[in-house]
Structure formats: structure tokens, C-alpha cells
Amino acid sequence: MNHPDPLTIGRRSFRSRLLIGTGKYRDFDQTRDAVEASGAQIVTVAIRRTNIGQNAGEPNLLDFLSPERFTILPNTAGCYSADDAVRTLRLARELLGGHALVKLEVLGDARSLYPNMPETLRAAETLVREGFEVMVYASDDPIQARRLEDIGCVAVMPLASLIGSGMGILNPWNLQLILEQAKVPVIVDAGVGTASDAAIAMELGCAGVLMNTAVAAARDPVRMASAMRKAVEAGRDAFLAGRMPKKPYSAAPSSPASGLITSAAPPAPAAPAPSASPPAASRP
């Protein structure tokens, strides 16, 4: 049975709108447990940091998260140039048997991990030309987002705040500008710290949320993964339902006031009776 509200990216559709990373967990067992609890179907993997077969003799993530159950989304975390990013994703395609869906990120510096947009655009052009379906980590600049879409990227992924910061949605107005013009999914990537952040992103109209540190660095990653799953679902439902308009400084009763036994106006309070003049003070 088809899902009534699928997330469609390129040629694929997914039930879950939560995408989850696989870095920073205690071990692959905890990674698997958190991914299971999240309900995510798309699992992103940093090819430069996680073994998916390129390092023989080391534990392989794919033994814990089967590509038959999950869509593995290789990413270019740790790349600082277009050339490095393109080479990394070509390797990922070989390791995953021709897999075309990838996440591109080209970083500007190691301190902020902010995207280097000129290099990102250059890499995106090469990857799209080579047949990759590119989901792309980007700044929250609506002009850059439009350029990436025009190049042919299948999803634009603006940061909400810096990678790993947990600062939440610091740029709702920029995200709204991107959402208003986008014809491909807009997925918040980076900055989510807790479940309410994920819900806010979805209430804004984002198609999904990608996170890693918010789950992996939680005191209980598996429980946080479950919380994130519920938050994304609730935020999506709230967006589809349409919130009531905000009415600053205007109160309105939530229950009807007419037709009730006590609906008559309350009587005005009786005027106080005039007080008698105090007796004249006697002289000593």
C-alpha cells in the first residue's frame, strides 16, 4: 500500500521524513539501535570516516545496517574541495554497486564546518553531469539554493545552525525564503539539538530533517532517536493541518459564550451607601 504522504527524492519515495547519520556513536551496535528507534529509512554515512567495505578486516557498518533494509546515503563529510568530494562519491558508487543517490558537502573550514558554496556548486555540476542524484548541504542563502536546484540537485539541505552546535533553528526567515521558491525537497541539515527543533523545522514546511549529533551525543541516544521520530511526525502533521493565525494582544474565548445559562451580563455592583459624617471632635 502506498504511503499517503511520502517524501519523494529523485526517483525514490520514503515513508520517514527523518534522515539520520551514523557517526559519533559508541559502537556499531548502538548505531543500529538508534537507527531502528528513529524509524529512518535513509542513513547517511561519511565515506572518509566509516568503513563500508573499503577497509578490509575492519568492522563494516553494512553488517549492522543492511542496504536491503536502508537506503545508504554516502556523504563527503571532511572534504574541503570540489575535487575531493567528487573523488569520494565516485568511490562510494563503486562500493555500493552503482548507487547514485549521494549527499554532497564541501566545507569551508574545520572550525565552523560552514559550507564552501563556490566549491559546492562546482562539485554539484560535475556530479549531476556524471549521473549522480545529488542531495546537497548548503548555506541558508536562497540565491545559492536556487542555483543548486537549477544545476539539477534533487534536494537542497540548508543548515539551521552550525554542524554539531545543537543551537536549533536560528534562521527561520531564510528557510522560509528557500521554501517559497523551491521545487525540490528542502531538508534541514545541521544544528538540530532536541525534538522541539525538529518539530519547528517541519512546521515551517521543510520536507525532512537530517541529524546526527543531536541523537549520538544525547545521554540516551536510542531514546532521543525515538523522540526525534515523534517530533518529525508531529511537526509534519501540524504543517499539513495549518496552524491558527496569530493574534497579538487579542484574546478570544475557546468555548462559545452564547446560549449558556450564565450568558447574561452580570449585574453591576451596587453603589456603596453614603457614610455618615464623623462626629465632631470634642475639645479637651
What report would you give on this structure?
- The chain is an alpha/beta fold.
- 33% of the residues lie in helices and 14% in strands.
- The protein contains eight helices and ten strands.
- The chain has helices at residues 28-38, 82-95, 117-129, 142-151, 172-181, 195-204, 213-216, 221-241; strands at residues 7-9, 12-14, 18-21, 42-46, 71-75, 101-104, 133-138, 155-158, 187-189, 208-211.
- The chain has a five-stranded parallel β-sheet with strand order 5-4-3-10-9. Strands 6-7-8 form a three-stranded parallel β-sheet, covered by helices on one side. A two-stranded antiparallel ribbon has the order 1-2.
- Helix 4 links the parallel strand 7 and strand 8 (155-158).
- 38% of the residues are buried.
- Mean pLDDT is 89; it is low at 278-284.
